[in-house]
Specification:
By secondary structure, this protein is an alpha+beta fold. It has helices at 2-55, 59-81, 125-141, 162-176, 187-190, and strands at residues 85-94, 97-108, 111-116, 148-151, 180-183, 197-202, 205-210. The radius of gyration is 24 Å and the shape is extended.
């Protein structure tokens, strides 16, 4: 009798562990999906912010902004992926309101493929374009002569692009003629900086030193 009860308890315990493991897997999957959704929302918000730059500008200013944005984001994309990719902005009017559409243009052996930036796939292209747009828009809306400050700009960038991120930001800085101040915990990003400072807390006090 006791042996039967022990076997039953063991079976119940095994079933419980199986379902608990399944629950943990589902919770991990939920957290992963929520993180991906948040990243997608972040990228969409970046594209919308770039579009608002065009909405608020005159026709002449929009053309100037279009050309500068194309050069800046193209330079960033090529800093990471090479010369076979570029960025295009198409500005039109819908119901009397200016509207901007953003595309990644890829060259595949002479064939050109133009893809909406949020639909671009593979190799982190949409991540890089989104980050480049964010940096370029920050440069556009910051008063001339003041530095552009970016706090952890690579936190939504796919893994493997840390070093390329530094080159990407340098390309945008060169193209826009602006100084970028970047806050990062990733030393690989800092490698591309002209000057690097480390902030450490000692005894409850922040200490800054030149690296």
């Amino acid at each position: 009798m006791l042996d039967d009860v022990a076997r039953l308890l063991e079976a119940v315990r095994a079933e419980y562990e199986r379902w608990r493991g399944r629950r943990d897997q589902l919770l991990e999957l939920k957290a992963e999906r929520e993180a991906r959704l948040q990243e997608t929302r972040h990228k969409a918000e970046t594209v919308e912010a770039a579009a608002r730059v065009f909405y608020a500008a005159s026709a002449a200013a929009r053309e100037n902004a279009r050309a500068r944005l194309e050069r800046a984001v193209t330079s960033a994309l090529r800093a990471v992926f090479g010369p076979g990719v570029s960025f295009a902005v198409e500005v039109g009017d819908r119901r009397g309101r200016p509207e901007a559409e953003f595309y990644v243009v890829s060259d595949y052996g002479g064939d050109t493929l133009k893809t909406p930036v949020l639909d671009a796939r593979g190799g982190g292209v949409v991540d890089v374009a989104s980050l480049a747009l964010r940096a370029a828009v920050a440069a556009a809306v910051t008063p001339p002569g003041t530095p552009v400050v970016l706090d952890e700009p690579g936190k939504h960038l796919s893994e493997g692009y840390s070093r390329a991120l530094g080159q990407l930001l340098k390309a945008i800085a060169d193209e826009t003629g602006r100084q970028f101040v970047v806050v990062t915990h990733d030393p690989r990003v800092a490698e591309a900086a002209d000057r690097t400072f480390r902030v450490e807390i000692e005894g409850g006090v922040s200490r800054v030193r030149v690296v």
